[in-house]
């Protein structure tokens, strides 16, 4: 279990992250090419294995993050449900934990922002489900809390991170790491991971014989 001091340290670290920016489009493109060339394809394969297993066993997939990563989570879910769909086959049970703004703000206001992801995950998830954390820093306290809860309650945890992976890296069963200190590049590669995974999942579902 995490202590309050650990959460406080995580909050300070996430707020104190130093990051790089670029001065030209070419510099950004070069940074993207560099990160894509380092993409951990084996980790993505393991992630898609887990998505396929969730589809096959009707387990649920919960994707979450803060800020831009919350929208990345929503985009991943959109593609897992729509792009990966195959006519006549069940669709993946995938959900973004930050799409209910009323619940997010109620928990943030009445309970605390650090609980905004753990609270809905605890409400909806069952052992055997999949929790997918998207966090550039890997240090956001609400993401760390949700991942810690997931591990304690027999969910499988996948983490997409940047920088040094943060505290979330140690909580992940599968860690897809983007070793950059540029938030834009990290978030763009995380989006690529979602597109790759959705297309690979579609292929696996399509190649599977008709399910009983």
Order of helices and strands: HHHEHEHHEHEEH
Shape: globular
Helix percent reads 40-55%
Average per-residue pLDDT, rounded, comes to 93
CATH third-level topology: Rossmann fold
Please mark out the parts with pLDDT under 50 across 5 or more consecutive residues, or reply none.
Answer: 1-6
Name of the CATH homologous superfamily: Glucose-6-phosphate isomerase like protein, domain 1
**Assembly classification:** single chain
Strand-residue proportion: 5-15%
Tally of alpha and pi helices:
8
| Strand numbers in spatial order across the main sheet | 2-1-3-4-5
Structural class: alpha/beta
* Major sheet details: 5 strands, parallel
How many strands in all? Answer: 5
Total individual domains:
1
Rg over C-alpha atoms, rounded to the nearest angstrom: 17 Å
**CATH second-level architecture:** 3-Layer(aba) Sandwich
Assign the CATH class. Alpha Beta
Q: Gap between N and C termini, in Å?
A: 41 Å
How would you describe this protein?
With 212 residues, the chain is an alpha/beta fold. The chain has a single domain, classed as Rossmann fold, CATH 3.40.50. The N and C termini lie far apart (41 Å). The protein has a 5-stranded parallel β-sheet with strand order 2-1-3-4-5. The model is unreliable at 1-6 (pLDDT under 50). Helix 6 (118-124) runs parallel beside helix 7 (141-152). The chain is 53% helix and 12% strand. The protein is globular, with a radius of gyration of 17 Å. Helix 4 (68-83) links the parallel strand 1 and strand 2 (93-96). It is built from 8 helices and 5 strands.
């Amino acid at each position: 279990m995490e202590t309050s001091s650990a959460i406080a340290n995580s909050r300070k670290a996430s707020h104190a992250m130093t990051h790089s920016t670029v001065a030209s489009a070419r510099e950004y493109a070069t940074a993207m090419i560099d990160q894509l060339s380092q993409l951990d394809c084996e980790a993505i394969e393991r992630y898609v294995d887990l998505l396929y297993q969730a589809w096959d066993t009707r387990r649920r997939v919960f994707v979450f993050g803060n800020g831009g990563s919350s929208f990345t989570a929503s985009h991943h879910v959109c593609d897992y449900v729509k792009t990966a769909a195959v006519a006549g086959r069940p669709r993946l049970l995938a959900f973004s934990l930050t799409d209910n703004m009323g619940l997010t703000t109620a928990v943030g206001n009445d309970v605390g922002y650090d609980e905004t992801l753990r609270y809905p995950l605890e409400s909806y998830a069952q052992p055997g489900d999949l929790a997918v954390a998207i966090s550039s820093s890997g240090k956001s306290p609400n993401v760390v809390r949700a991942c810690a809860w997931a591990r304690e309650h027999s969910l499988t945890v996948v983490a997409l991170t940047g920088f040094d992976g943060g505290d979330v890296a140690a909580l992940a069963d599968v860690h897809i790491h983007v070793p950059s200190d540029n938030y834009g590049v990290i978030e763009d590669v995380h989006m690529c991971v979602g597109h790759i995974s959705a297309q690979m999942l579609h292929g696996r579902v399509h190649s599977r014989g008709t399910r009983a």
